[in-house]
Design brief:
With 64 residues, the chain is α+β, with helices and mostly antiparallel strands. The chain has one helix at 15-25, and strands at residues 31-38, 41-49, 53-55, 58-59. The protein has one domain (1-52). A two-stranded antiparallel sheet has the order 1-2. A hairpin with a 2-residue loop joins strand 3 and strand 4 (58-59).
């Protein structure tokens, strides 16, 4: 996901940015979210997701 977002003013965040960040976090079990900032503006969100396997039998399932 690569999209440019700007702040609405000096005090608040663009609701589209907040929405995109929440969407990127939703369902992420292993991985990271990187927020890239240029000239005090968020210009990019990157979501990296890891799939971990306990053994060759398939994905490891953990209770939440």
């Amino acid at each position: 996901m690569t999209t440019t977002y700007s702040t609405t003013n000096g005090d608040g965040l663009d609701p589209a940015l907040v929405s995109a960040l929440v969407a990127a976090l939703r369902g992420l079990r292993f991985g990271s979210i990187e927020v890239v900032v240029h000239d005090s503006r968020v210009v990019q969100l990157e979501r990296r997701e890891r799939v971990r396997f306990a053994d060759a039998d398939g994905p490891r399932r953990t209770e939440r």
